[in-house]
Amino acid sequence: MAQSIPELYGSLVFNDKIMREKLPKDMYKALKKTIENGTHLELDVANSVAVAMKEWALEHGATHYTHWFQPMTNFTAEKHDSFISPTVDGQVIMDFSGKELVKGEPDASSFPSGGLRATFEARGYTAWDPTSPAFIKDRTLYIPTAFCSYSGEALDKKTPLLRSMDTLNKEAVKVLRLLGNTEVKHINTTVGPEQEYFLVDKDLYNKRKDLIFCGRTLIGAPAPKGQEMEDHYFGTLKPRVSAYMHDLDEELWKLGIPAKTKHNEVAPAQHELAPVFDTTNVAVDHNQLTMEIMKKVAAKHNMVCLLHEKPFEGINGSGKHNNWSMSTDTGVNLLDPGKTPAENAQFLLFLTAVIKAVNDYQDILRASVASAGNDHRLGANEAPPAIISIFLGDELTGVLDAIVNGVKYEDKRVEMEIGVDVLPHFPKDTTDRNRTSPFAFTGNKFEFRMPGSKLSVAGPNTVLNTIVADVLDQFADELEKADNFQDALDDLIKRTIKENQNIIFNGNGYSDEWPVEAEKRGLLNLKSTPEAVPTFLAQKNVDVFSKYGVYTEAELQSRVEILLDEYCKTLNIEALTMIDMAKKEILPAAAKYIKDIAKTAELAKSCGAETVFEEETVKEISALVTEMYKALGTLEADVQKVHSIEDTQEMANFFHDTIFADMGALRVPADKIETLVGKDYWPYPTYSDLLFYVK
Ligand code: ADP
Ligand code: MG
């Protein structure tokens, strides 16, 4: 009989239930304490957990284990070791120790380190993250780990994320204590990432080098139909897509990933999956796994899942909406407006802390989502713009205005004095109407909509946690010194709202007026990756990360180096792919068509027929071929120039200003040629084929 969903759910996860069953009581308690409070784990506990994990893994057919980690790319890494341990009599036993569970030593030399490894120890080690559950995939036990150098520098995305969660926990608890809360012991940030993706047919995909090498189409004329009919969003799922989604859900559920919502997105062939939110580091691990499983399941259905931010020009790109909040171990969401006066003050304090943090650190929040792929969305006529602003909705904005002005908020019961009266509750539908805002309050959480679809959300959440912690720290300092706490709180909230009104924008972020208005307000507009990324190294940003030990200056430098390097490499691959396609496929296809048409013309002429079509077509395509050939020459020459640039920032600028522009110029005639040559001559599946083929 088929398993029921509750039986299936988490069946491949070493979860709390299994731990309780398999571990001696005292060991279970010690492990829980580590997981919940981040306390140190003793070796005897680790040994006990290792035995239980191994037994469970073997029962599920596992033969290997791996320390699973997240190097400074958007991917995860793993090296598998089998459990076998030879015995003297030539047999093997299946063995796994606490030491092996807690620490691994992968050869780290091939992962990007952004110069960290030159200055520090060459080797790295992985350390078990007991707060994210182990799981089984492909007959291997996966142990989530952090990846560091021997001298402790973070070589991954998880370590800074965990540090930032810890920092926010400390500062938020401090603020709650000042507000008179003595119960809360721990605060976690929570994340629910909504994942967008495209599905295309695999046989068609395999005919396009650009999709294979770059994950996006580098050329392609628009299909006669795009997304203008608005018939795809929430539309009926086609059978093949529906079957895929069912399979995907099941695979995710087995791994304890709470996939919840699925639907068609705005663009044809575009879809979305949203899980139920979880503690940030677990949500990040799960999102990494989700992306991997999405691709694997697609392959089974003879499709390819495209996670690129902009696979098709003129069609909406894909993002990852990062829903974020803070929640206490007593089960209170700190961004929930609450029902009592005390909760209101708390809500307003945490809300204004987020607003101020986003305003003070617009630059690094923007930088945390910068990538070559995402440049096609942010600031490129696509949702959302590159300018960071906050959407609060009219109601909440009205409340904040009333507080600043010391007046009643219409007939609602908001008094000037904070915490004395009760705030209106903001239903989701009054706060979630604006889809153009990069950072929107949606009832009881913020939704950061800038991350690209294939980005690991570890980075943006590391930044969010740290900057909010910093503001909470500043708030605590001020409140600690107060003679009259209530007055000080009142003043702090009012002042913070007033000083940060410039970042609040409830209007249309796509309008032409907004960038002009935003500039007047002093908001940053960092349009591209080479522009955004270096802001990590501005003094105030180095200071905030090092103050809380989230990134050292060297760790930040390494990340900037890696991000810019990755940007350059991506554009280089795109440029080379485009050159290859133009030379080997597009120009020859055009030439062949011209030749055949010319032959037809000859034949027509020999029997005295008219040859207008043939002549016009030959002329038109020949002109485009010439234009393309020239643009190709320019691109090729400029790609050569890259080799003489040594500085990474300069190289990134060159790729952005010159190579990217060259590619645009080459695309124009290529796309026109596509519309002129016969279908059988064109070497690629078209946008029509790719976007409307999957039924
Ligand atoms: P939508 O944004 O499409 O209206 P929802 O509000 O239901 O949808 O939620 C979107 C995502 O936000 C889901 O992944 C959900 O689990 C997540 N989410 C809801 N509450 C929180 C929270 N307190 N913290 C983080 N994420 C949350
Ligand atoms: Mg949403």
Overview of this protein structure:
With 695 residues, this protein is α+β, with helices and mostly antiparallel strands. The chain has 24 helices and 17 strands. Strands 9, 10, 11, 12, 13, 14, 15, 16 and 17 form a 9-stranded mixed β-sheet that branches. Strands 1, 2, 5, 6, 7 and 8 form a 6-stranded mixed β-sheet that branches. A two-stranded antiparallel ribbon has the order 3-4. The two termini are 30 Å apart. The mean pLDDT is 92. The structure holds adenosine-5'-diphosphate (ADP) and magnesium ion (MG). Adenosine-5'-diphosphate binds at residues 190-192, 194, 274-277, 323-325, 333, 432, 442, 444-445.
Give short descriptive properties of this protein.
49% helix, 695 residues, single chain, 9-stranded mixed beta sheet, binds adenosine-5'-diphosphate, alpha+beta, binds magnesium ion
Write the layout of secondary structure elements.
Blueprint: H1 5-8, H2 16-22, H3 25-37, H4 43-59, E1 64-68, E2 80-82, E3 84-86, E4 92-94, H5 98-102, E5 103-104, H6 116-119, E6 124-128, E7 135-137, E8 140-149, H7 158-178, E9 187-201, H8 202-205, H9 209-214, H10 239-254, E10 259-264, E11 270-275, E12 278-279, H11 280-300, E13 303-306, E14 320-328, H12 341-360, H13 362-367, E15 390-391, H14 393-405, H15 428-431, E16 439-441, E17 446-448, H16 458-480, H17 485-499, H18 513-520, H19 529-532, H20 539-547, H21 553-606, H22 612-642, H23 648-676, H24 687-692
Parallel strand pairs: 1-8, 15-16
Antiparallel strand pairs: 1-2, 3-4, 5-6, 6-8, 7-8, 9-11, 9-12, 9-13, 9-14, 10-11, 14-17, 16-17
Helix pairs in contact: 3-4, 7-16, 10-11, 12-16, 12-17, 14-17, 16-17, 21-22, 21-23, 22-23
Bound molecules: adenosine-5'-diphosphate and magnesium ion.
